[in-house]
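Posted in: Structural Biology > Protein-Ligand Complexes

Title: Requesting predicted complex, methionine sulfoxide in pocket

I'd be grateful if someone could produce the 3D structure tokens for the following input. Sequence and ligand are given below.
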Amino acid sequence: MTLTGLQEGVDRILERGGSDEEILQGVVEALEQLVEHYSWVGIYLVDGDDLVLGPWRGPQATEHVRIPIGQGVCGAAAASGETEVVDDVNADPRYLACFPSTRSEIVVPIFDEGRVVGEIDIDSDRAAAFGENDRAVLERIALQIGPHCRFGVATD
Ligand code: SME
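-- Reply #1 --
Done. Output follows.
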């Protein structure tokens, strides 16, 4: 499946509609299922000074269900509002380990009305799995789902 196919899949989910939680769950499922190098996909939502894990899809649950903004790769992206791409997680001192198999990670902030309201976090079992195409498609998807992150914390 190409990243173009992924964009089409996400467009269909948004056209279909549903609750915000259903839409976000559909998007994480599409990301995890359609792109082979996306091993674990989650959406974190901003809750005060923290990120709280919302919908996710992958082989295992993560222990990092609440991350203070500023901590970890996730917290860095939320603090700066910039996408983080980590080619080798074991070489990044900020990295909060979730799964022993993870080699690389991308974290894309989600904005709504100019504020960071969440982020897409993807772990890959491949080193340096995330290129410019991944970044571009994921940043576009993040823009599309921003208005659906208003419902606040999905799980806690
Ligand atoms: N690795 C992240 C924590 C979240 S897990 O990857 C699901 C980080 O360093 O912030």
